[in-house]
Amino acid sequence: MGESKKELAVAALENGTVIDHIPPSALFKVVNILGITKLDNGITIGNNLDSRRYGKKGIIKVADLFFPEDTLNRIALIAPNAKINVIRDFKIVNKHTVSLPDDIIDIVKCNNPKCITNNEPMKTHFEVIDKENVTIKCHYCERTTNKDDIVIK
Amino acid sequence: MENSSLVSINALTKDEIVSLLEDAKYFEEHPNHRFLAGKVVATLFFEPSTRTRLSFETAVNRLGGRVIGFSDASTTSSSKGESLKDTIKMVSNYVDLIIMRHHLEGAACYAAEVSPVPIINAGDGANQHPSQTLLDLYSIYKTQGRLNNLNITLVGDLKYGRTVHSLIMAMWHFNPTFNFVASEELKMPNEYKEFCEEHGIKYNEVTDFSEDVINNTDIIYMTRVQRERFTDLMEYERVKNLYTLHNAMLENSRENLRILHPLPRVNEISYDVDENPKAYYFNQAKNGLFARQAIICKVLGIKINKEAK
Q1: Is the dihedral of CA B233, B237, B238, B244 positive or negative?
Q2: DSSP SS3 for B177
Q3: Which pTM does this prediction carry?
Q4: What pLDDT does residue B232 have?
Q5: ipTM > 0.90?
Q6: Closest CB from B83, B84, B104 relative to A115
Q7: Contact residues, chain B, for A139 at CB < 8 Å
Q8: Which of A25, A27, B27, B178 is deepest in the core (most CB within 10 A)?
Q9: Domains parsed from chain A with CATH numbers
């Protein structure tokens, strides 16, 4: 696939948000976490695109929507290198990476089958106890989970 | 919802622990009060635990309060599929305080979030049981006259034993030295050893329950090696008698040594130890009453005027 065709497939935004450098395996989870399936806005989703830095990547463009920072940081767990481009009038006015929040609400499933969160209609809540290595601790059953064992709800 | 619930021993500061122990001492000297006159307390035992429930209910009664509740969830609407939240919401309409035990971990923490009245966690699965920890601390404090700089030996099931994990967490304020005595299969999990290292707590880990360990310790905390913890019952049969304390093993132990056990015991303390004045496990259970009186007053914000008595 040529460079020009790829550019064409992912059209430029006049106003909105571009979320770039999403790992391909995490793309549709990101779509769900951000609630993009429920939006009426113009949305372009690309996946398995060539990325110079990561090999393959996913990208999401949402027209006329600027996500709150808290919302965007919800994806940091599964797309730690995601780049946020805020576009106004065809120009990138803000570019930054997502950062892991202190608390992760209702994104991760607790791996402890005897945890109350797996047995009651309720939101899960994890505290990030080690941002560098991504270790999280269930607020309820106090069980810790390492990066590789994290399961998204 | 913010309230003064007691869900986890880790939420208590050193000062709060010390103050609860002083209150427990006061209740031991003066057990009967009217602090809870006109108050109703619910004991919701979604999982049966006769010992803990009777201790809490006695504590409420000795404080002059009344008790409603259940001792087995099979007789309640949670067996019809009612959520914990709904049960807690309903009961909290009636009472001033909820004391609950649940087989699921984190249940008390969640209940404390949805309840407008305080919750006392009387055990949530393998997670927390703060009143047990507090009575253990009180027993240590009472028998040794101090909490600082003690040598404490934990024996038996250190892998799944909730009481020993909580004890480590609570004792870190008081510069203890721990001996972890367990078989390879039931040894102390890494996260607690890491906790010790991070907090400068000295510990030795051994598989042999030897006199060398016994003779240099102030407290022996025995735990039950539970049959249900083993997937391989052959393994259980092999391990179960390795960590049994016999009276003869105590011959050269320290004068101030006391033996604790959360009870019920099966065979990890032989009956010939019972007559030894160093055996303290039955008194330990009694201390639970005073520790629980102290906890109840704390979560309800009742100031104990010790001079007035």
Answers
A1: positive
A2: strand
A3: 0.87
A4: 82
A5: no
A6: B104
A7: 106, 109
A8: B178
A9: 3-97 (3.30.70.140), 103-152 (2.30.30.20)
